[in-house]
Design goal:
The structure is a single chain. This protein has 279 residues and is an all-alpha fold. Helix content is 66%, strand content 0%. The protein has helices at residues 2-10, 14-22, 26-44, 62-76, 108-118, 121-148, 151-162, 166-171, 183-191, 197-211, 218-234, 240-273.
Length: 279
Amino acid sequence: MVARRCGSAVFGSSLTVEAAVITTSPVCRAGAELAVYAGIATWLTWPLALKAQTHLPGVSTPDTLHGIWALAWAARAPFAGHGGLFDAPILHPTPRAFFFAPNGLGPAPLFAPLYLASGNPVFASNLTLLLALALTAWGLHRVTREWTGSWMAGLVAGATFLTSTQWTLYLTMWPTYVSVYYFPWIITLVAKSPSGRPAVVLLAVLMALQCLADPVYVAPVVIAPIAAIALTRLVRRGTRRSGFELVAAIGLTAAAMSPLYLGYLDARARTLSGGSWAS
């Protein structure tokens, strides 16, 4: 049903949309494309946008509520005058209680301004989810269009993502499960072989932000393929420099993620040893 709705909405009007955006500047064209995907995501999930302030998609689960709380705390932590992000205000006087569960901070850059402006975590979560879907579809569109030179190919890529039934399950949980909008840009940077310090740093930042979506499940999916590509480039003289640059990007990503992993390892060690959490 979703596929049919999107097919009629997207492909039925694709020529009109293409004609409208093809004559505009690159920035306006990109903005128009993003607006189209945001509109499609809103339509496919309707009436979520209508009830965004009071309802959550699907059936709420413990993951849903915990994830929204974690994002809300991440947004408030810098202003809380507390011990910092990791000393979350739960299970007092337990320190570093943030590490009792995965927290999926990937959507925080989208969620935080929405939450701080509205004060409504449900509203912020729903808008973050819609933005995550739109940004991922738009990123796939832009990257595919760049690779193929075809606007229609980009449209097919974006629409395929939005109409995938795989996302129906994740829509009932929380935004971090659909926060994969950095992947298209990571892929295109790796394919272009980052050259120079700015490109390596940019790749590392994108990788770290994507890994934050879930340090257990998403991070390995980000790191492992790039590590494999780096190894294949290292063994060839012509691509060795690119291989070293990918290794550097992986190293920077690991350094950025290390506070999280060290925190989880410390929590695990304390739990297994039966040590006190109150110190």
